[in-house]
């Protein structure tokens, strides 16, 4: 088992075109670090700042729950979970 | 948004979306709506083909915010300006309706032509004709 990351079109340059990649971790932060180890560059497109936070215009969901409502990067995750990253559709 | 079959470059399914920002100067899809939309497109083997919005007081050209936040490299970003009242039912003048690619902060305008059917575009360079 593993945790699956569904990658949006704009970030597939970091995954060799793959729509989904796997990783591990007990929290979303650990998982993103793990995936970034195998696909360098992904992390900085999802996370920013110090302390690290999710980018304002990137949405991340664990099992269909927006992580902004479940603890952000500290959201707990486990084997079999599905993490979806979607860029915001926004402008002005 | 208007979705279409993956790789077709054809805008065939109109999907009305709510502006969760509830603002005349900024738009953003609600995060739950966004997830539902993308799951639905995934199930139908679709992708975003046209992402459109209006500018109520300025020209139909991507704003700095539009350029910064554009994150769909495969989409045509369509802008309509209603600064001359084009949103009013009685309006009968020309409508500013323009389309762009926005990739890595670079804006490239593209021609818009209204046709009755895609068959009228046969022979043109268009991924959608295959």
UniProtKB/TrEMBL annotation, chain A:
Pfam families: ThiS. Gene3D superfamilies: 3.10.20.30. This is Molybdopterin converting factor small subunit.
